[in-house]
Model the fold of this input.
Amino acid sequence: MKKTDVVRAILADRQHLLPCNTEAEAYASSNIALCKYWGKRNTELNLPMTSSFSISLGNFGSNIRLSVNENVADTACINDQLLDWQSSFGKRLREFLNLFRITPTLGFHADIHTNIPIGAGLASSACGFASLVQALDRLFGWELSLLELSILARLGSGSASRSLWQGFVEWHAGTQADGMDSYAEVCTDVWPDLCIGLLILSDTEKKISSRVAMQRTVATSPFYTAWPETVRHDLSAIKQAVREKDFLLLGKTAESNALSMHATMLSSWPPVLYALPGTVTAMQKIWELRQAGLMVFFTQDAGPNLKLLFLAKDKAHMKTHFPNMPIIQPFINE
Done:
C-alpha cells in the first residue's frame, strides 16, 4: 500500500474536489514524546513499531498560510525566506503536496512561520505537517475528523500525528497493514503545574536525519529487539503517572526511556550520536541538581537539545540555573 492509497481511502469522493477557498491558515504546536517513537514497521506509511505518548509545547510550533497558485509552480517561504526545494524539508514538503495535487496545473504557495529550529530535534516536522494538513482541509473544504487528519499528517511525519491537539496525546501503533488504526488521540488528563524547559544547545540542522537513524537502528542495533518491551513498560508507567500526578514516576520514566532510545542508536553501526559535549554537560548538571534535591528530569529526542521536566513550584530555581531557557506550561494559557 502506498501513501496515495491512504489518501484515496480517507478522502473518498472528496478526493477530486477543487479548493473551495483561495487561502487557508492553521497552527500546530510542536510536541515532545515522553515515551518515544523510534523505529518503523512500514517506512512508506510511517507506521511505528510501538505506540508513543507526548506533551504539546503550546506557543512553540508552526503557523502556515496556504494558498492556490493556479498554473504556477509551488512556492514556499519559511520565516520570510524562500524555501530551497532541494533541501531535505523542501523535498518532503513537495512530496506531501503532490498527494493532494488533483490537477497538474494546481500549484500551492506555503507561507510558514515557525519558532522551532528546523531539523534540530525539536519536532519541527511534527508541527509543520500537522499545520499543513489542517490548512489543506480548510483550503479544500474536506471537513475531515481529527482522527483522519492525524492519519494524513502521519504520512508527512510520524510525530505530526500527535501535533493536532494540545496537552497529552497518545499515538497508537496499530496492527493493520494499511495503517488505518495507527492514529493519535488526546488524553483528557490535565496537569497545570507541569513545566517544560527547552534547553536549546544547538539550532543547526542535524547531520543524520531521524528517518535514516531509525532505519539504521532497527537494521543493525543488537539492543533494538528489547526496545518494544521497554516502550510497553514505560508507556504504562507514564500514563499511570499522568493519571495520578506522580511527578517522580513521570520524570524518571521519561528520562530512562530517552536514554534507552539513544542507547539503541549508539549500538547501531555506524553508531548514531546526537549528543554534543554541551548535551552531556547539561545532563550531568541536571543529575547534580537532582542529587541536591531539585526535582528536574530531562528527555532528549533525535538531536542535541534537551527538554527539562519540572513542576511550577521550582520555576524560580530553574530560571536561576538556566536563565535563558524558555519555559512552557502546556496547560496554562500564557
